Amino acid sequence: MNITDVQLQILRIDAGSEPERCDGSTVRVIFEVGGSSFLASYSRGPRIFTSQASRRMLVTKLLADVISPHTVISKLSEVDASTAVIRLLPRSESALATWRSSMSSLHAQAVESIGQEGVLCESWFSFYIDDDAFLFAVMLRSIGIRAEEKDATSDLEIDRHHRAFKASWDRTLRIACRPWMTHTKIQD
Fold first, then answer.
1. With contact defined as beta carbons under 8 Å apart, do 18 and 178 qualify?
2. Looking at the 3D structure of the chain, how many domains does it have?
3. What's this model's pTM, rounded to 2 decimal places?
4. 141: part of which helix (H) or strand (E)?
5. From 142's CA, which of 16, 32, 94, 117 has a CA 20 to 30 Å away?
């Protein structure tokens, strides 16, 4: 799969509205920020999202997509997913640019790193709500495999860059992601 095969759509959900149902090819979670609810839909492959009321849709940008060698994911219902929404601290643009550049220049190390963690695929996106910058991260693993926490002890340069980038994350805000009508098991 190449980078154009990965999509993230985020919609602001109006109170009382019901998002459309989906098939097993999409990981969907709901999260809340500032009293508003949002539905994030992540897809791999040729699926093109249909546009629901574009005024409610947030613009997302793919920052990084890392896939372990020999990984074939034909349906997202065949994997477990972990998702995270992270607010960046104000004026974190240079830290974000440095991290994104390292994910590109050290791509082989990123592949090695997620392989050591038992992760098949890891995708990162950025988006804005009002004037605040956020990240949306998705990790896909084989069903029943828990990702290994090794980032703090890794000597890989890419993991050092990731640890440094975490200093730009707003740790005062915990944003929970709840599964929404998905066939994929989603873990915290």
1. no
2. 1
3. 0.83
4. strand 132-142
5. 32
